[in-house]
Design a protein that fits this description.
This protein is α+β, with helices and mostly antiparallel strands. It folds into three domains: 39-129, 2-Layer Sandwich (Alpha-Beta Plaits), CATH 3.30.70.330; 137-191, no CATH class; 194-273, Alpha-Beta Plaits (2-Layer Sandwich), CATH 3.30.70.330. The protein is built from eight helices and ten strands. The strands form three sheets. The protein has a four-stranded antiparallel sheet. It has a four-stranded antiparallel sheet with strand order 8-9-7-10, with helices on one face. β2 and β3 form a beta hairpin. α5 (139-157) packs across α7 (181-192). The longest helix has 19 residues, at 17-35.
């Protein structure tokens, strides 16, 4: 049992206010020591809302709140939305990636009482037990993200490319020649703007382009299908971000057959969350 787990188990059985305060103080001290480790350069934020953007997190920092060690202009971070690397679905978590631990600590201190959409923010430092020389995202999380990027770029090209690579393993050795994470994030953000995944399209609409000719769809294909359950899960690449947004606006939640609304309700998720 870890030190933190031990404290938490003790607190569950304690009713005395003073003893509880001591335990809570120890937990805060442990969290502070974790956050202050130079190798901790990422914060996790859990949310069911896939539509949050960089601006939502950046605006939490104001000139008045900023500490003396940094300014709003010097606190820089990258934002990742955690997605399933195979099916691209949102995994209810955002990762804020900082270049320096001091920036992370400043951001954490400034935003600790802030809210996003009237929900108080609760940050969790991303720790993987690596030393200060390890990747700022952590090896395991970076591999998952890079695999997502590889599979998305393949799907963006065509169906064959996607199925050729989707189940291939990825290791630290295989990504040694890959681009820097910051440039990869920027590149993937541009692709995400024009892509969506869709549940429960009618089985007969294997190719969407003829049915939705008023949208500029580059291509679409089934990532998953089950004819017995009449279940489909499609990837769609649009030519423009606007068409992608409009498709979601017009069809998300649309029931095309009232005889079984749970099965026949179209659900659309755009990869940039908008």
């Amino acid at each position: 049992m870890s030190h933190k787990q031990l404290i938490e188990s003790v607190l569950k059985g304690v009713n005395g206010t003073n003893i509880r305060k001591v335990g809570e103080k120890l937990l805060k001290q442990e969290k502070a020591s974790v956050v202050g480790h130079p190798g901790v350069l990422a914060l996790a934020y859990d949310s069911y809302d896939p539509s949050l953007t960089y601006a939502d997190f950046a605006k939490l920092v104001t000139q008045r709140q900023m500490s003396m060690t940094s300014t709003p202009q010097t606190i820089k971070f990258d934002l990742l939305k955690r997605r399933d690397p195979k099916y691209f679905t949102f995994k209810d978590q955002y990762l804020l990636l900082f270049n320096r631990n001091i920036d992370l600590r400043d951001y954490l201190n400034i935003t600790k009482d802030s809210t996003i959409n009237r929900v108080r923010v609760r940050w969790r430092p991303l720790v993987e037990g690596k030393d200060e020389h390890s990747s700022y995202l952590g090896e395991r999380h970076e591999l998952i993200y890079r695999k997502y990027c590889r599979n998305l770029e393949a799907a963006y090209l065509d169906r064959k490319q996607y199925f050729d690579v989707v189940n291939k393993e990825m290791t630290q050795e295989t990504i040694s020649d890959e681009p820097q994470l910051s440039s990869l994030i920027e590149r993937i953000h541009e692709i995400e703007k024009k892509c969506a995944v869709v549940w429960n399209m009618p089985m007969e609409s294997k190719q969407l382009e003829p049915y939705f000719s008023f949208y500029d769809i580059v291509h679409s294909f089934d990532m998953y299908w089950n004819r017995d359950l009449s279940k489909t899960f499609k990837f769609i690449r649009f030519n423009t971000q606007e068409d992608c947004k409009q498709f979601k606006k017009n069809y998300h939640g649309y029931v095309y057959d009232e005889t079984n609304p749970d099965v026949n309700k179209i659900l659309v998720e755009t990869l940039n969350g908008m």
